[in-house]
Structure prediction request, 194 residues.
Amino acid sequence: MSESKILVIGSSNTDMVICTGHLPLPGETVIGGTFFMNPGGKGANQAVTVARLGGRVSFICKTGSDIFGHQANQLFNEEGIDTSYVFSDTKNPSGVALITVDTDVVAPGANAHLTPNDLKRSAEAVEAADIILLQLEIPMQTVEAAAAMAYRLGKKVVLNPAPASKLSAGLLETLYAITPNETEAEAISGIRIT
Prediction:
């Protein structure tokens, strides 16, 4: 039995994390805490997870042509991820997530510029994949285009609907599986989860 080829289409961020005793109030400065940076982004996390589990994975994303983008690409290569379709954006910085305690703020940077046109440039990766993993840290039109392209080709599309957002009926029809948490399930269905 041959090993499935998995394609991840999504985001790559650098997480900048500070742990504090409490979240600052507007205008308040909080002294203390610890700071660290690590690779992140829902798409990058999916790609690394698949690679570490021994899967053959390709990743379509867009990073800035900056230190964070170069570090991300180096990490992907070290993890054994096919980076043939990691696009470098010379006009926009790499995405960063600013995380204070348990509050996340994401500045999408180049992630917001991964376009359906980039998907067309990556069509052979979609055709070669058996399973496509998506999340919502890239433009919705790119998510919808990727899911539609994969669906037309008979591929299994799995969506992590984060961050939570309304999803079109057209997108839902193209999915093989969806993996929402409670907040995301409520946003998708419009039904309060208790």
Remarks:
- The longest strand covers residues 56-64.
- The chain has a mean pLDDT of 92.
- The two ends are 43 Å apart (CA to CA).
